[in-house]
Amino acid sequence: MSTNSSTLNFDGRSVELPVKNGTIGPSVVDISKLYGQTGAFTYDPGFTSTASCESKITYIDGDAGVLLYRGYPIEQLAEHGDFLETCYLLLYGELPTAAQKADFDYRVTRHTMVHDQMNRFFQGFRRDAHPMAIMVASVGALSAFYHDSTDISDPQQRMIASMRMIAKMPTLAAMAYKYSVGQPFVYPQNDLDYTSNFLRMCFAVPCEEYKVNPVLSRALDRIFILHADHEQNASTSTVRLAGSSGANPFACIAAGIACLWGPAHGGANEAALKMLEEIGTPDRIPQYIAKAKDKNDPFRLMGFGHRVYKNYDPRARIMQKTTHEVLNELGIKDDPLLDVAVELEQIALKDEYFLEKKLYPNIDFYSGITLKAMGFPTSMFTVLFALARTVGWIAQWSEMIEDPSQRIGRPRQLYIGSPKRDYVTVAQRG
Ligand code: ACO
Question: Which family does it belong to (predicted)?
């Protein structure tokens, strides 16, 4: 990594700040010594200009619409790879050999069951609990069940915790779903591949044979690949920040799930589908476009816009293709929601407001239609996202723990509250 420097003139002083260059992408001005040299902090709410770490995992070029995992384009991984291979790549940095892949798949598969007392833990939830609430709680609760993998200073324990989470997340996600619909939990079946096993745990019932549809399994596997990692987004940064204090891995991933739940992040696919349902028919699109453009109306086109992509989200293109594949397989010829989505996309992509603000469809625009067609209720959409993103969170968390320069994350602030003042007793307060 080559370095040069830049000069900052502040308060009559001139300060040299090192500039670091990555392999690709924007350089960074290293301001870590700024406070020591000037007594000033930088100010960047929402971190729009701030790199919080060095990372070798995922690269995004938002202007060009490029997404690479460990250097490999997302389009190639989604077309040729499978989800567990992507997990291996994200965790270890290289695509596995055939033997490494077989060993990895075997190890994940052999960790899919959850401790049987987790069943009782589930019974404590109300039947109408949101599955994301159950996920936040149950993943955090794993730390209470697997004490032998919570010492983060031990690489072996870190590895076991990582495998456990990747393997058990589908089981927990399926349990959250089964609980919400009042059906018995279906145990994992280890001779099925990762995604087929998940579909079976969600949709099989004990009273009849369940045959996994390979087209749907492949489509969902691809959806998992698309969601596996996305650089330093809000939930990943949450995981890193939680982990920087030395918290155990299960607790850190639970923190990531909590952050992902929000409608501006992982909750957007649920919100996008609800919006398409609310619009209902293509003739109502113009009124919703007008609402989205109205400064006095808080409404936004869900599934549109992205903090980093100022071009078509490359995942959205693959998602759109997957949507058509799934609908074809299921024989859904005319889906009114798809009609609304396609028309809305066409109109928005030509509209001056969206062009000027570089607002393009993101991955969530089409994923809701696809998941709904597969039989998932909207409340499960973000759960599926969390399932897939778990490997990204773990890879980023491991990278941070293994980084010798890692310190606890502790941002500063611009204080705008009252200056120092003296306490006034209740009797004296006017
Ligand atoms: N519809 C209408 N206007 C929008 C939209 C939208 N979906 N998104 C952004 N804008 C407008 C904003 O009003 C703002 O306009 P202004 O400059 O006149 O004030 C401008 O575009 C910039 O928007 P910001 O909110 O400042 O952009 P930011 O980068 O902070 O937000 C975000 C990105 C949260 C994704 C935003 O585009 C949004 O709310 N989109 C809808 C929710 C969504 O789809 N989220 C999924 C993200 S992808 C993911 O998490 C997997």
Answer: Belongs to the citrate synthase family.
Q: Which helix (H) or strand (E) holds 28?
A: strand 28-29
Residue 261 Cα to ligand 1 middle (Å): 17
Distance (angstroms) between ligand 1 centre and the Cα of 304 equals 7
**Which entry of 105, 227, 229, 306 is annotated as an active-site residue?**
306
* Pocket of ligand 1 contains residue 265 by CB under 6 Å: yes
pLDDT digits (tens, 9 = 90+) for 81-112: 999 999 999 999 999 999 999 999 999 999 99
Kindly report the number of other CB atoms within 10 A of residue 394's CB atom: 27
Q: What pLDDT does residue 338 have?
A: 85
Task: Give dist(CA 255, CA 236) in Å, integer.
Answer: 9
Question: If residue 66 lies in a helix (H) or strand (E), which one and from where to where?
Answer: strand 66-69
pLDDT value of residue 336: 87
Q: Is residue 181 within 8 Å of 127, Cβ to Cβ?
A: no
Q: What are phi and psi of 290, to 5 degrees?
A: -65, -40
Query: What number does the ligand 1 atom closest to the CA of 306 have?
Result: 35
Q: Which residues of the chain have a pLDDT value below 70?
A: 1-3
pLDDT tens digits, one per residue of 193-214: 999 999 999 999 999 999 999 9
- Which pLDDT value is given to residue 1? 52
Alpha helix (H) residue ranges in 14-58: 34-38
The two tokens of residue 30 are: 């290293």
By the 8 A CB rule, do 270 and 149 touch?
Answer: no
| Catalytic residue status for 306 | yes
Query: What CA–CA distance (Å, rounded) separates 395 from 389?
Result: 10
Alpha helices (runs of H) in 294-363, residue ranges in sequence order: 314-329, 336-350, 352-356
Q: Ligand 1: which of 235, 304, 349, 358 to mutate, most ligand atoms within 8 Å of CB?
A: 304
Residue 176 corresponds to which tokens in the numbers above?
């959250």
Tell me how far the alpha carbon of residue 426 lies from the centroid of ligand 1, in angstroms.
Answer: 46
Q: Is 128 a catalytic residue?
A: no
Type of residue numbered 75:
E
Ligand 1 centroid – CA 305 distance (Å):
5
Helix, strand, or coil here: 58? strand
The predicted pLDDT at position 3 comes to 59
The pLDDT assigned to 315 comes to: 94
| Closest protein CA for atom 29 of ligand 1 | 307
| Whole-number pLDDT of residue 73 | 98
Amino acid at residue number 107 = R
